[in-house]
Design a protein that fits this description.
Blueprint (H helix, E strand, L loop, with lengths): L1 H52 L5 H17 L1 H15 L1 H21 L3 H4 L2 H31 L5 H5 L1 H23 L2 H6 L4 H18 L17 H4 L3 H21 L3 H7 L5 H29 L1 H24 L4 H19 L2 H6 L7 H17 L2 H10 L4 H20 L3 H4 L8 H4 L10
Length: about 450
């Protein structure tokens, strides 16, 4: 009897703890979903709102100007990674996540209510640029903080599975933006969308951000209490872990470039190179993204069994071998079923990385600079290689050497493979489950290992 009495509270405590952790993942990932939905709404609805913010002229010039402002959002990400990484490491993960989702809400609401070029002239594109800069800073800070939070709140032995939901919601944000576009296209005319309908998705994003804010305010803080916080979130402290930072930067470059190549750029590649119908390409990519989103937890859970280092070696090694043949085959194919299979195959390989993207970085940095190390390395690589993927691909195509882009992606994945080989095994040397000797494993002097 005494044994059963003693066991019952323990079982109840375990169940309650599991529920708290699940709610923490839901709360943090809900904000991630909103952040990426808002960010991609801009890209998906640009065709309709571009005429509202730029002088009358041909559609191409208006879209180019709109795309330029979209690119600025990418290049604001490193600033966001630094600002919010510092906030998260000094003031707490929850505080950082609350502020970032508030900024995204403000950016989306601002775009939704902005006056047009016809009303205020050149002030319209300037205001649009400012709103996108706010969104860029916000989404730049979101990745590192949410990745850090998810890795810290997850149960040991299941960290990969829990952390995989970061990319589930990242891809989900793209799909949600696409779904809103398809829905509005079904219920509104093109003229209505150009006149005022394009504002609706930004209002939806602002409202969703309020819901995410409510969920995040109730999250438990994971940052360690006490200790010396003077150097937390500073470049001085991060510099002690520069080897880990460079490794993360290297394999993130290949991951970001391959991700954007097989997701956002792929639809244009199917239309421009394979000569596939636009609607067919859109439908194909929607189904591909649905499958891609659904398989992320599988690869996160797999990493808990085989180890994050093995995941990274498989992603970068297989990726290096697959890009040229897959892209070549896709460029000469008009069958949507074959395209679906080939693109899904590519994304399955990339899932070895995206399924653990946040956790594999978080394990290489100590608590005091974890959010800064993860967020800044990701933002720099993402802005430099992910954000420019489409531009570089189209530049090579325009130059008459489209296949060179395939080798460019292959080269970055080869660099990621080298980084994955060098990367210490997080199970033995990581800061979450290992002994924390990452720098020593990378060849640093022992005194820096626990700095």
């Amino acid at each position: 009897m005494s044994d059963s009495i003693g066991i019952a509270p323990s079982a109840e405590d375990d169940a309650a703890d599991r529920r708290r952790r699940i709610m923490a993942i839901v709360g943090s990932s809900s904000g991630n979903l909103v952040e990426w939905y808002d960010f991609y709404c801009y890209a998906f609805f640009a065709l309709y709102f571009a005429p509202a913010f730029f002088p009358k002229g041909d559609t191409t010039s208006q879209l180019l100007q709109t795309a330029g402002i979209f690119a600025v959002g990418f290049f604001m990400r490193p600033i966001g990674g630094w600002i919010f990484g510092r906030i998260a490491d000094r003031l707490g993960r929850r505080t950082s996540m609350v502020i970032s989702v508030l900024m995204m809400c403000a950016g989306s609401l601002a775009i939704g209510i902005l006056p047009t070029y016809e009303t205020v002239g050149t002030a319209a594109p300037v205001l649009l640029l400012l709103a996108r800069m706010v969104q860029g800073v916000s989404v730049g800070g979101e990745y590192g903080t949410s990745a850090t939070y998810m890795s810290e709140v997850a149960v040991k032995g299941k960290r990969g599975f829990y952390a995989s939901f970061q990319y589930v919601t990242l891809i989900g944000g793209q799909l949600l933006a696409s779904l809103v576009l398809v829905t509005l296209q079904a219920v509104m005319t093109a003229d209505q969308l150009r006149a005022y309908g394009w504002r609706i998705p930004f209002f939806i994003g602002a409202l969703a951000a309020v819901v995410a804010l409510y969920l995040r305010r109730s999250l438990a803080e994971t940052m360690e209490k006490g200790g010396d916080r003077e150097e937390a979130g500073t470049f001085r402290e991060l510099s002690k872990h520069w080897r880990a930072f460079c490794v993360v930067l290297a394999y993130t470059a290949g991951g970001s470039l391959s991700f954007y190549t097989f997701t956002t750029y792929m639809q244009k590649y199917l239309v421009n190179t394979a000569q596939m119908e636009k609607t067919t390409a859109s439908q194909t990519m929607t189904l591909v993204l649905l499958v891609y989103m659904a398989i992320q937890p599988i690869f996160g859970a797999l990493s808990d069994r085989i180890g994050r280092k093995v995941n990274m070696l498989l992603y970068s090694g297989l990726g290096t071998l697959m890009v040229v043949p897959l892209m070549t085959a896709l460029g000469t194919n008009k069958d949507p079923y074959v395209a679906f299979g080939l693109i899904t195959l590519g994304l399955v390989v990339i899932s070895f990385y995206t399924g653990i993207s946040g956790i594999v970085k978080a394990e290489l940095f100590p608590t005091k600079v974890r959010a800064l190390g993860v967020g800044l390395s990701y933002a720099l690589a993402n802005a430099t290689f992910g954000g420019t993927a489409e531009y570089v691909a189209l530049w090579f195509k325009d130059a008459g050497s489209e296949s060179t882009f395939f080798w460019y992606v292959t080269g970055l994945l080869a660099v990621a493979f080298v980084a994955s080989v060098i990367m210490p095994n997080p199970k033995r040397h990581g800061y979450l489950d290992g002994d924390g000797t990452v720098e020593e494993a990378l060849g640093a002097k022992p005194k820096l290992a626990h700095a």
